[in-house]
What does this fold into?
Amino acid sequence: MIFRRDRPAAEVADTARQAPPYSGIGPAGAERAAFAAGCFWGVEAAFREVDGVLRTSVGYTGGHAPSPTYEQVCSHRTGHAEAVEVWFDPARVGYDELLQVFWGVHNPTTRGRQGLDIGDQYRSAIYFHSPDQEAAATASRDREQAARRREIVTEIVPATTYHRAEDYHQRYFEKSGRAACAATLKQAS
It folds into this structure.
């Protein structure tokens, strides 16, 4: 089966019901992070390459619709961003290292777009789950800004309900054989 972004709404409706929002419980001892950096396929693939990342999923967050579908998010009426939820083992990889990957996989100076993907769902955002994550994200953004001429437009906001995307979006590159999209797979150093 070929997985495509533009699947008919009827097919999406079936898979959307099979992919409820996570309850917030991850692997034992793991911490959670959430990032939006354009098309979630490439962002997820980049985080999956990081040693210490235990689980990833792509989904929608930061908006107001209670059970968004891909088509609804693309309609620009839900306020949601395409995002990646990352569960990680803090003994093996730190949140600061995940932030380095985040900055390295997208252009944080473009508002509402990444490469050819245009729309508010492709915005750059860090969704923090604790005051420590907020402080680390802010400090990281400030360090990154010092190395850039253009202003970073990344939102740093509290995490809200995360809605897991339809199954056909999960691990998209592994399923489709594609190697890249607007987000690069090169890990930041």
